[in-house]
Amino acid sequence: ILAFCSAVLFTIYRIGQEFESKKVPDDRLYEELNVYSPIYSELEDKGETSSPVDS
């Protein structure tokens, strides 16, 4: 069990290292999310207005 847990933690650590080494694609992804964020906020507003109807 201990070996399995350590292997999982090591795998998560390696994935974290991969993401840290790829800073530029992450920045591009955040720029794309900033473009789409108004659309998501409008969808969330619609969801919030429909929730009082359910209650």
From TrEMBL:
Protein name: IgE receptor beta subunit
Taxonomy, superkingdom: Eukaryota
Keywords tagged on the record: Receptor
Species of provenance: Mus musculus molossinus
